[in-house]
Amino acid sequence: MIYEYWLAGIKEITDLKKQKLREVYGSGKAIYYIEETKLDKLRFLNEKDVAILKNAKKDTELEEKWRRTEEKRIQFIPYFLKTYPKKLKYITDPPYALYVLGQLPDEKRKSAAIVGARNCTAYGEQMALQYGKSLAEAGIQIISGMARGIDGAGQRGALNSSWAKESGVTYAVLGCGVDVCYPRENIGLYMDIQEKGGIVSEFSPGTQPYAWNFPRRNRIISALADWILIMEAKERSGSLITADLALEQGKDVYALPGPVNSVLSQGCHRLIKQGAGILITPEELMDEWNINPVEIGQKGNKSEKMLESPEFMVYSCLDLFPKGTNQLMKETGLSVTELMERLITLELNGYVKEVSRNYYIRLQ
């Protein structure tokens, strides 16, 4: 496999040309040792391609790179192996190979991609968490890009589900090598996903998160998913690229409506106008998909106990849009001390979140 690894790592030659080369010569090893004069006769290779291949053979660190990959427990899965995802084989530009930490999605289970804005609102983040958790509890795998904002929130939601007691709940497709955590702030999420799913990339280990890699990786996210959920997106954004790719692949796209004056909802509203499905609740969505949630609503006992507590009055005044403490004091009639005591209790128990100083939203 070391020679397949070598061929896959040649960035300047397209995946399609690599596949054609292998079809002609049978293996990466045969391509590595081919006479240079024979390369010149292949019509699908231009002079630049031939020069790149010749230069690639001069790599003196090939064995060391392969050894480091094995030491990091990175799986190398070229397109011709049985373990290569079938969903990727039939897209327009399938990657020549994948690199995986953890495992690949189970093709016998359904998958949904949750993607959206990096600089999302508290509303978008909370909805991504909610959909990620609810869908995962119904046994649906969550695919995303582990980016800050919506992507990470959807995957955290999946990891918070009851299904996460087992492995195989969420998968991150990166725009860098699988051994590079980007963004660095998501290191905890990065480690958890390896244990409860997998980190996937078409880029060789060590590849840095260059901006031009991310639009390309979006086709893998959409291909691995059966449905694509856009939670928040500007009029022009990478999430809409994912949506367009999904439509080309024949996938159903759904978008989350938001405030009409929100810049981060304009992309979603455009998708809805063009015919995308509307996200209202996870339960309605799964009903449309004819999926029976296996453990939906399992938090009932915890919520019932909370409803009986003194904090319920404060909790009931909150929703997904931030409210300040001054407004909450007016609505509840509580003093600032009483209100803060209840808010702190609710926050410690995971029912509310302070999104900015003295402004809170409801989480469940």
Characterization of the model:
- The protein has 364 residues and is of the alpha/beta class.
- The protein folds into 3 domains: 70 residues; 178 residues, Rossmann fold (3-Layer(aba) Sandwich); 63 residues, Arc Repressor Mutant, subunit A, CATH 1.10.10.
- The chain is 43% helix and 13% strand.
- It has 18 helices and 12 strands.
- The protein has a 9-stranded mixed β-sheet with strand order 1-2-6-5-4-3-7-8-9, sandwiched between helices.
- Helix 8 runs parallel beside helix 9 and helix 11 crosses helix 12.
- The longest helix is centred in the middle third of the chain and has 16 residues.
- It is elongated, with a radius of gyration of 24 Å.
- The protein starts with a helix and ends with a strand.
Please write the CATH class name of the largest domain: Alpha Beta
Judged by helices, strands and strand pairing, the structural class is alpha/beta
Give, in order, the helices and strands.
Answer: HHHHHHEHEEHEHEHEHEHEHEHHHEHHEE
Number of domains: 3
Helix-strand blueprint:
Elements: H1 2-8, H2 15-25, H3 28-32, H4 36-39, H5 47-56, H6 62-71, E1 75-78, H7 86-89, E2 97-102, E3 111-115, H8 122-137, E4 141-144, H9 150-159, E5 170-173, H10 187-195, E6 197-201, H11 213-224, E7 227-230, H12 238-248, E8 252-255, H13 266-273, E9 277-278, H14 282-288, H15 300-307, H16 312-316, E10 323-324, H17 325-332, H18 336-348, E11 352-356, E12 359-362
Parallel strand pairs: 3-4, 3-7, 4-5, 5-6, 7-8, 8-9
Antiparallel strand pairs: 1-2, 2-6, 10-12, 11-12
